[in-house]
Amino acid sequence: MSTNSMSDPRRPNKVLRYKPPPSESNPALDDPTPDYMNLLGMIFSMCGLMLKLKWCAWVAVYCSFISFANSRSSEDTKQMMSSFMLSISAVVMSYLQNPQPMTPPW
Amino acid sequence: MEKPKAESWKRTPQTLKPRGAARGAMKTLPAFCVVLLVLWSVSEAKFDDFEDEEDIVEYDDNDFAEFEDVTEDPAPESPQRVVTTEDDEDEATVELEGQSENQEGDFEDADAPEGDTENEPYDDEEFEGYEDKPDTTSSKNKDPITIVDVPAHLQNSWESYYLEILMVTGLLAYIMNYIIGKNKNSRLAQAWFNTHRELLESNFTLVGDDGTNKEATSTGKLNQENEHIYNLWCSGRVCCEGMLIQLRFLKRQDLLNVLARMMRPVSDQVQIKVTMNDEDMDTYVFAVGTRKALVRLQKEMQDLSEFCSDKPKSGAKYGLPDSLAILSEMGEVTEGMMDAKMVHFLTHYADKIESVHFSDQFSGPKIMQEEGQPLKLPETKRTLLFTFNVPGLGNTYPKDMEALLPLMNMVIYSIDKARKFRLNREGKQKADKNRARVEENFLKLTHVQRQEAAQSRREEKKRAEKERIMNEEDPEKQRRLEEAALRREQKKLEKKQMKMKQIKVKAM
Where is this region: Disordered (chain A) (predicted)? Predict the structure, then answer.
């Protein structure tokens, strides 16, 4: 038995299950990028829709892509998809209302 | 057939009979209209005659009598008139005078050469005035002809949509980078696990658990939290409760991050957190690592800031390279920790070690609460923390993961070492004093808050009691409860008075 315990440190009777760390405020503290980008994306897409600015709508699409790439697995996909759809609809609506090509701001 | 016609005819005068007066009016009305028409046409002709006296002059038979062909004369003059009327519409009144002058000139020219006008419809002399006209108009107007580009939306070419094409290309590039980055991170994680699997399985019963299965069986694979974070939980070993390994790769799936890293290179990291059993680790706080990392940890971590108040010291005394520094609660701990094997590990793999942190008072980073200090000390756990940098500074390849295997050996060794290392009596006393001191400080800071909390609790109790008394329907019971509450309050007051008296006596 002693040789056993010397050579094999494993103890099957001491197995503890994995407990995911409590995520009250930690996710937001660790990396707020996806949340910020989500919010920015929504703001830009609303601006693009209301003010009929094409560049706003395009920036919103980019923001939602960045938010998706940085998202945590704990975040639900519904919010991601909704921000995606909103930004794409902003782009489509801007072009339907005004099919002219985008003019650069400079 | 005729009969109905005759009848219809008969009917019409019958129907018209009652409108006798209207009949008379109907007869006179057409005649009146015809007279009006004739008068109007005559007046028009007369006005036409009076519009241009020059025209009248032209159309006089006497003028045309000089020429053989009458029809040719109006022809050349009509285009002139057409041109002049057009000019009248476009240009200012100044031109009208010029036109009138030209017209007179034309007529003079037309009158003189009889033969020429017959053969040539347009005489050179006729257009003399016209050379001046464009010059005068241009000099007076100064309106240059500018060639304007056709607006973009009217062009039917893809080139005008170059910005949109740029945007879509950017999006496609982002998506490509996402796929490539995700795959690379996944390959790196798998390579790490394949390299370390054997060592882990020989040390732990349970390798890989996501907490969802009913039974505690090894999943044998990493738990993907993110596109760049992978977890692995190992448990079932002497002295430790479990070990959580977190592979924190760079965000290769985010193009913005990739571009930012080109400016400032960062490494992938492997974070290992070993939770020790209470009986298997003595009470001490100790850290070793790069100076920068230690400074940051000292600021962030609750236990390091409270127990290791000194600045990170150099480890040269123990044979460590200059890049590494030591933070310790007391010298004895450092002496005990820095044995030969540990020094060997630290020296050989100094470039891969970011920080090593042993603590019995570990509670995570400092919590910044808005209301002020938390009312209770945070829960502590005996923990060993290791943070390693993957070699390559971002440009990692799967084969680089093999270089981390010796570090895992160091972790295992540290677990056993922490279990074996015990403070002597002095050290233990110091450690206990330190902990008591920290707790006292904490209590002092929170004294005010705790008092307030206690007061609010007391008030709540009183309110609850009063409510109970009010809610009691039976007046007798109410009276009794009220009396009981009064008695309790009196007792409290007496107690307070006694205490004050005692304090006064002591002070005296």
Answer: 1-32
The residue count of chain B comes to 508
Of residues B247, B283, B273, the one with CA closest to residue B404: B247
List of residues 6+ apart from A101 with CB closer than 8 A: B152, B153, B160, B161, B162, B163, B164
Reported residue count of chain A is 106
Taking the C-alpha atoms of residue B84 and residue A65, their distance in angstroms, rounded to an integer, is: 68
pLDDT one-digit tens code per residue, B213-265: 888 788 888 999 889 999 999 999 988 899 999 999 999 999 999 999 999 99
Better-predicted residue by pLDDT, B219 or B131: B219
Q: Does A105 touch chain B (CB under 8 A)?
A: no
Output the six-digit token pair for B37: 């028409």
Task: Give the closest of B167, B174, B226 to A58, CB-based.
Answer: B167
Span A27-77, pLDDT tens digits: 556 788 888 999 999 999 999 999 989 999 999 999 999 999 998 877 778
Q: For B419-466, give the DSSP string.
A: HH----HHHHHHHHHHHHHHHHHHHHHTHHHHHHHHHHHHHHHHHHHH
- If you compute the radius of gyration of chain A from its CA atoms, what whole number of angstroms results? 24
| Contact status, residue B216 vs residue B207, Cβ threshold 8 Å | no
Distance of CA B367 to CAs B71, B303, B307, B363, Å? Answer: 110, 12, 17, 10
Say yes or no for a CB contact (<8 Å) between B242 and A102: no
Q: Are A70 and B162 inside 8 Å of each other by CB?
A: no
Whether residue B44 has pLDDT greater than 90: no
* pLDDT tens readout for residues B54-101: 444 455 555 555 665 545 444 444 444 444 444 444 444 444 444 444
Mean pLDDT of B397-421: 91
Looking at residue B236, its amino acid is G
Nearest beta carbon to residue A18 from set B211, B237, B238: B211
Confidence (pTM): 0.66
CB distance B226–A73 less than 8 Å?
yes
Tell whether A16 lies on the interface with B, counting CB pairs under 8 A: yes
Q: Is B102 helix (H, G, I), strand (E, B) or coil?
A: helix
CB nearest to B161's CB, from A9, A66, A101 = A101
Query: If we measure between CA atoms, which residue out of B319, B324, B281, B289 comes closest to residue B417?
Result: B281
What is the least distance, in Å, from the CA of B345 to any CA of chain A?
21
A92 at interface of B, judged by CB pairs closer than 8 A:
no
In this structure, the strands spanning B240-248 and B229-235 are antiparallel
CB pairs under 8 A between A and B: 90
| Rounded mean pLDDT, B151-167 | 79
